[in-house]
Automatic annotation (TrEMBL):
Cell cycle recorded as keyword: no
GO biological process, one term: negative regulation of DNA-templated transcription
MF (Gene Ontology): DNA binding; DNA-binding transcription factor activity
Start and end residues of each HTH gntR-type domain: 11-79
Name under which the protein is recorded: GntR family transcriptional regulator
Length: 244
């Protein structure tokens, strides 16, 4: 497919490049997860800078259409691994990487716990069945802005020895063959209590964005129950809808 950028158009170059790449990855040649040409070749074909091209690619990574792996390249997400209802959700690490935001882990704890009733009910298990709990306090290098608690269904077969510093859903797929397919979310506002205020280094009573995420695998089985507490003055939650 011949890719052409109109340098005389008033449409920004990175927007034109994004639309061209969308058409490219929908072609039969790329629809099954093929690697894209490297950035040097693509930027030369489009007659744009690599910085401009990278901006377009990052947007498609954010939308969940491309996956970038260091030392391998950028490939198209296979059609079978995309949800027809939502195609732009990713793990926190992937979201921040796509936006070019450096992230630091301030705390990372793994433990085995008895699930609370609401969590056991979501997973459809008994309350006396231990499950893995992952706690992460994350943010920019200068300070934390989000506190996560994740609980995992026993079917994921986590041991606790996995690399939890890696993007979570990439790790689950690579290490355990679990594909996170569907994410359902509930978003509300809270005031920071003593515990959350201490974690996020803010004042008690400060506004907090509270997000519950319910994650299901490719067979629509529940695999993760996630709670996220975000500093409201450090994070904006954006939802993008595209009319087709």
């Amino acid at each position: 497919m011949k890719l052409r950028i109109d340098h005389k158009s008033q449409v920004p170059l990175h927007i034109q490049a994004e639309e061209l790449l969308r058409k490219l990855i929908e072609s039969p040649e790329y629809i099954d997860g093929k690697l894209l040409p490297n950035e040097v070749e693509l930027s030369k074909d489009l007659n744009i800078s690599r910085t401009t091209l990278r901006q377009s690619i990052n947007k498609l990574v954010y939308d969940g259409l491309l996956i970038r792996k260091k030392g391998v390249g950028t490939r198209v997400v296979e059609s079978k691994s995309l949800s027809s209802k939502s195609k732009n959700w990713m793990s926190f690490s992937q979201e921040m990487s796509a936006r070019g935001i450096p992230i630091r882990n301030f705390e990372l704890h793994v433990s085995w716990v008895m699930p609370e009733k609401r969590i056991a009910s979501f997973f459809g298990i008994k309350e006396d069945k231990k499950i893995l709990k992952l706690v992460r306090l994350r943010g920019r290098p200068e300070g934390p802005f989000v506190y996560f608690e994740s609980y995992f269904h026993p079917i994921v077969r986590l041991t606790g020895d996995e690399d939890y510093k890696a993007p979570l859903y990439e790790m689950l797929e690579k290490s355990h063959g679990i594909i996170a397919m569907i994410s359902k979310e509930e978003i509300s506002a809270l005031l920071a209590d003593e515990f959350i205020a201490a974690k996020l280094e803010t004042n008690i009573g400060s506004p907090i964005l509270f997000r519950k995420r319910f994650v299901y695998d490719i067979d629509e089985r529940p695999i993760e129950y996630n709670l996220g507490y975000y500093k409201a003055d450090s994070f904006v939650y954006t939802v993008e809808s595209r009319r087709e």
